[in-house]
Amino acid sequence: MRRALRRSLASLTAVSLMATTAVLVEPQMAGATSVHAPRHVPNVVGLPKADVYAAMRHADLYFRTVGPGSANGAWTSVASENPRPGTLLAWHATITLTTSLHAGHALRAVPRLIGLSKAQVYAAMRKAQLYFRTQGPGSSSGRWVVDVRQTPVPGTRVRWHSTVTLTTSTVRPARPTKKITSAKPKPKPKPATTTTKPAPGPPTTTTRPPTPTTTVPVTTTTYPGETTTSTAPTTTEPVTTTTVRVTTTTVKKAPVRYRIGLATWYSYTPGRCASSYLPHGTRIIVRDLATGRTIRCTVTDRQGSSTGRVVDLSETQFSQLAPPWRGVVRVKVSW
Prior knowledge:
alpha+beta
């Protein structure tokens, strides 16, 4: 009886081992591959701790740290990594990071530069702490006036002091014409304010001729049988009429002699500026609305009407209102 039980247990064990071997070997024989594709090692050198965790989590990789602050978790940035960035590793592989106690720089978003002028591009890239290089018309001589394309696209998160490629142009592209779908009624003009004043000079006097005298019979009885008739003269005094001249005066509104908007700078002679709406030779006063500083200049150059700015100043006079790296300031132009 015991021998039969032992034989049955041995047979059951053999069958289970064969089934397990078949399950383990079958995927290899069928040529099955791993479900997860290999991962590229991200570049985390110089990044702070928070960005390192986010980058490694996004790449589905593990990491271990060596170096200053790695034992107690006091490290703040990555000094080097092994294997090098871009290496293909299996899913959930582990890379080695050499840490540092010095603060790193977080990733930053690439600003939108398409359509901006040279001064605006410099200001935006200086604020984002990024570099850029130019290609296209006017890039070699530095005479480009506007950016028409950029790589990478706006909003892409890049490392501190990364380089963005700009495609420049010496001609600002024309804005598309807006289609008018429905004609709006024109507003009715407001009635002009009128005042009535007496005309200067002596008044005019008109004298009417006197009314002729009329006789009214009056009958008076004195004694019986006798009747006496007498007349009472009635006269009318002359009437004097004064005529006053009436004049109508229309009070006109004073024309607008200022504009408020953005001002920028470019390489030009100090004391001269560019405008799209004022004739050459017009002397203007430019006032910074933030600080109250003012400068004076003469319009001797023409700017494009589609720039959206009220004046383009020389670099010297712009620096009297604000630092040139700001690119644009909000001003009031009076003339």
